[in-house]
Amino acid sequence: MTDKDYMRLALEEAQKAAELGEVPVGAVVVCGGKVVAQAHNTRETEKNALHHAELLAIDKACKALGGWRLWQCDLYVTLEPCPMCTGAIINSRIQRVVYGASDEKAGCCGSVTDLTKLPLNHKPQLVKGVLQQECTAVLQSFFTGLRKERETERNKTKMKKLYETDRQKILDYIMAEPEMNLFFIGDIENFGVDTKEVEVFAHQKGDSFDSLILRYTTNYIVYSQTPETFDAEPVIKFLSTRKRRCLSARGDIMERIAPALGGTPRPTYMSRCNAVAQRAPIQAKGVTVRSLVPDDAAAIVELFCQIDEFKDGYLGHEAEMEEEERLNLCNGGRGYGAFYEGKLISYAQTSAENSLGAMITGVATLPAWRRRGFAGAVVSSLCQMCFNDGMQFLCLFYDNPAAGSIYRQLGFEELGVYTMLRGMDTANV
User: Fold this and answer.
1) CB neighbours of 108 closer than 8 A, spacing ≥ 6?
2) Hey, which bits of 178-286 come out as E strands?
3) Cα separations (Å) of 425 from 244, 245, 304?
4) What are phi and psi of 281, to 5 degrees?
5) At 323, which helix (H) or strand (E)?
6) What is the pTM of this model?
7) pLDDT one digit per residue (tens) for the chain, 429 residues
8) Taking burial as the number of CB atoms within 10 A of a residue's CB, which of 250, 397, 400, 414 is the most buried?
9) For residues 269, 369, 346 and 217, what is the CA-based torsion angle, rounded to 10 degrees?
10) First CA to last CA across the chain, in angstroms?
11) Is-contact 200 220, C-beta < 8 A?
12) Shortest CA distance to 360 belongs to which of 329, 306, 397?
């Protein structure tokens, strides 16, 4: 048999390693024209740093021949030996080393260095490049497959950024629950899918969405059609790296992700109204009710900074929140408020206005002016304005039982739990 024949045996061993998921390196020891040992890399399988193909083959040869001196043996190996294996070759007195592929990163028989040229008590003969193409191809095929496998695994836990070309697919998905997704729908219709203000990300399973995340400035919304079974890991991993002021989702979705993100979830009741009940107009001296314009943004923020339910998200962020309120009123949002001597004392606004409806948010009245019907009046006026403009339905969420009573009187009916997670001003990294 020739060197090529023995190297083919070593390649067979390398293939065995590949089938185990090991780096495909195989080795054969030949003595007097007879194969006395064959081995392949099992470092990962056996969890042992010493289980290189060359060391295992040398160990088997020593046992087969009954001694540690292999001075009449040749070693055939598919990849140039590393420092450890070259040392073992020298110490076992292997007379000749034949290898196929060079190892530019760890080879110590000529590539990185040549340990056989050191002034030691044994110098094996080196023959390189036997079946080099075949030996290299086995390694390249293995690492190409490994990279693809790792990329597939990464993609399983990766949120993919979506673009304007994905708009219809996104809308088709979230329209399964239009009420719960009013923010989603409105932000996409008013700003787009990939803009400075709004981005959408998806985790996919096959050709379908498993979950979606929408970013509006520093606010995030999560949605999945399968809240009990969607893969929460990629959602959590994505959100953990993002600065976010508020995260919101259906209650059952938030239950899956909130424990890993920190913060205290605030569950609320999502409600829908198809027609608003009329309220008597406010008749209080010095109080006027009107729709708000972008220049009222500072007054809105001043009001929210005095309301316990809102102030944590506004105090210290006044400039940022004023810009956000102005942005909402400039891009389809509406506001209705009660003013006393020019000061805003009660307020309600829409956000996420879209072709179907809108979300009523930010319903607030200064403590000194409560229980006088202002909240009901501004919400009623705001709803009537929206329905007059052709909206099909309006939604709002609340956690205050007293507010719930007012909303039911106005014609709102509860749909389910919608949860917010506030106070995450810095990412959990």
Assistant:
1) 80, 81, 82, 83, 85, 86, 114, 115
2) 198-205, 208-216, 219-223, 246-250, 265-273
3) 6, 5, 18
4) -65, 150
5) helix 318-330
6) 0.56
7) 999 999 999 999 999 999 999 999 999 999 999 999 999 999 999 999 999 999 999 999 999 999 999 999 999 999 999 999 999 999 999 999 999 999 999 999 999 999 999 999 899 999 999 999 999 999 999 999 888 887 766 666 688 999 999 999 999 999 999 999 998 998 999 899 999 999 999 999 888 999 999 999 999 999 999 999 999 999 999 999 888 889 999 999 999 999 999 888 989 999 999 998 876 566 678 888 899 999 999 999 999 999 988 888 899 999 999 998 998 888 878 999 999 999 999 999 988 888 889 989 889 999 999 888 888 889 999 999 999 999 999 999 888 887 888 899 899 999 999 999 975 543 332
8) 397
9) -60
10) 61
11) no
12) 397
Residue 54 known to be catalytic? yes
Which of 13, 22, 54, 353 is the catalytic position? 54
Strand, helix or coil at 340?
A: strand
